[in-house]
Amino acid sequence: MRSCILLLFSITSLGTLAQRPKLPNQSSSVNLTNSNNAVVKVIQAGTVGTVANYNLAIPKDVQQLLDYLKSVPSIAKQLNQLSQGVNRLEQNDESQNNLLMIIARNTSKEGIFSIDAYNKGLEKYIKENDELKAEVAQLKLKNKDTELASVLNKAEEQLKQFNNEGYQELLETFKQKRKSKWQQEKEEVAHVSYLQAQNNINQFKYGKALQQIDEALGLIVNPIYLILKGQIYTDLYRLQEAIEVFSQIDTTALSDKLRKDFYNSVGYTYSQNGKPDKAIENYEKSLSIAQRTLGDDHPDLITYYSNIGVAYSLQGENEKAIESLNKGLKIALNAYDPNHLDVALCYGNLGFALSNKKDYDIAIFYFNKSLNIIVNKLGDKHPDAASIYISLGAAYADKRDYERAIEYYNKALIIRRKVFGEDHPEVAVCYNSLGIVSDRQGKHDKAIEYYNKSLKINLKLLGVDHPEVATLYNNIAISYSNKEDYENSFIYFNKSLAIRTKILGTESNSTQNTLRNMGNTYIINSHIRKGLTLLKKVKTYNNSTNIEKAEYFYQIGSNLYGSGKYSSAVNFLKLALRFLEQGNASATSWLWVFTYYSLGSSYCSLENKKKASKCLKGLIKYEGKKTIGSSFRSDLEACIMR
Q: Taking Cα atoms as reference points, which of 399, 391, 357, 398 lies closest to residue 371?
């Protein structure tokens, strides 16, 4: 088996690291003058525990690293290309080390990168640098303007001759020429600011890039500048502002390539903003342009089919998701070897959609196909393998095989802590996943402990106003609610709601989910009116019929009854009966019998036989209409008689 060398760039000081939605050229700012930020870990796939550290700020370490890698025949050629590429940039040793860090961060996924990916990034850097130099060279052709001095001299002569018409004509001619030149200079200054912003994005300095693109737009409103500003806002997770900027762009003025990238960026922003329908609309526009300009079987289409598929899955339209993802998989299998990493990505996305469809066994099958390729190509200690372990853990958790889920989550945690260290967003994901499983097992204190570990990392790396922080507050609130500590539950729900409303808006799925959870918790805690008031703010609830509301409350009440939380179950089941009555539900509806049975059984368990008997009468009223009623009647009668 071919030896595979992976390079891990480890940032020793993570205080300023911020993980944002992944877009091209996305990473965090790195202080390249700090030697502590130039440490390279070399991990040989398949070799357990073999980790060598090199400091790129130390020439001796750089030479040792290159000597070591050149000893591996399978990558010697790529390393020679790498060295030649760096030399072509004509930079001194310190600049080369800094450049190595920048390109590595830009071509890596969470710090891990391959030589091939590095060389492509280096070639891209050289190409873009040449393009920037060409544009700057054009600006340098402009000479210093001394025309005004000559015009004033001539105007003065006209005044001496009392030739006012000549004087006016000279100045008017100069003024009109200068107006034209003034417009040209504004365009040049704006373009320089745009070039600076692009360069700062390549250096991951998004705040500075935003300032410079605003300078450009202050001079000239150019659609290319607006697109770049929208992308920067998305990098900063200022999603609503990104959408507002994108909405200002006239797409008819864009080239096919630029419109394709524009719609894909807009789609991604909507997806991050919890609006998959809008995301799909824009992704499909990108796909249509790509099909027309590249053909139906071009590998670039894999990205668009994958984006559309994931968005459909997030929207709950799993059949459409699977159809789109299979189209991407077909292209990948035709374009690449069956063990190509893009094929693994397609398998993983299919697993995600199938898991959302609740076809967990088939999802696990595809996750394992993806995992086999990743392990074969990258090794079983690679972060991509950890990502599949997380997906497998989630699928087993949904199957209620919690021990198996914990096993996979811990595998992912071990890899990510070893590769990234403790303070990393991917480690935080593992703790959050373990918290979810612990809560489902009824281990609410353990769940809160895991959530707080994840929260500590995310607060440090992402800041207080980040959607991941809001998710953790929401999860902590649910655990407190499950352990009937409602005071703390509402504290954390309100923290989650404040962030989600501020960052994502009131219409996002995440914000709506927090409102739904808060409303349900109020009802559990017998604050029925407050709970219903909050639920009315949830679009899917407010737009539903009374019968659908009855089904909603019955499902929750039935689950609470099954969990032994009888008082809380009563609150929901009574609401189910209320909406059945308001909706004039058919006497043959199964929901009457089920609701009366569950409510009566809850009262019986609470030793309130009087109310249980009343529910029995309701059940008897409707059991004749439904053949399923007789067994429920006998069960409830037996409960009352005990």
A: 391
Note whether 345 and 306 are within 8 A (CB).
yes
Task: Give pLDDT, residue 67.
Answer: 66
Between CA 605 and CA 627 the distance in angstroms is 25
Query: Cβ distance 121 to 103 under 8 Å?
Result: yes
Q: Which two tokens stand for residue 160?
A: 């001496």
Q: Per residue in 206-231, pLDDT tens?
A: 788 899 999 999 998 888 899 889 98
Q: How many CB atoms lie within 10 A of CB 266?
A: 28
Which of 67, 95, 123 represents a domain boundary (last residue)?
123
What is the pLDDT, as a whole number, of residue 577?
94
Top-confidence residue, 97 or 302: 302
Helix (H) or strand (E) holding 622, with range, is: helix 609-623
Whose CA is closest to 385, among 403, 367, 399?
367
- What is the reported pLDDT for 106? 60
- Burial zone of 49 (CB within 10 Å; 0-12 exposed, 13-18 middle, 19+ buried): exposed
Q: Backbone dihedral region of 295: left (phi > 0), alpha (psi from -120 to 50 degrees) or beta?
A: left
Q: What is the DSSP letter of 557?
A: H
For the whole prediction, is pTM greater than 0.85?
Answer: no
Give residue-wise pLDDT tens across range 474-505: 999 999 999 999 999 999 999 999 999 988 88
E strands present in 94-250: 112-113
Look at residue 527 and tell me if it is in a domain: no
Query: Which domain does 45 fall in, by range?
Result: 5-123
- Are 241 and 25 spatial neighbours (Cβ–Cβ below 8 Å)? no
pLDDT for residue 440 is more than 70: yes
pLDDT score recorded for residue 425: 83
- Find how far residue 397's CA is from the centre of its chain: 22
Question: C-alpha 68: how far from its chain's center?
Answer: 37
The number of distinct structural domains making up the chain is: 2
User: Is 56 within the bounds of a domain?
Assistant: yes
Is-contact 7 183, C-beta < 8 A? no
CA dihedral (342, 380, 72, 110) in degrees, to 10, reads 60
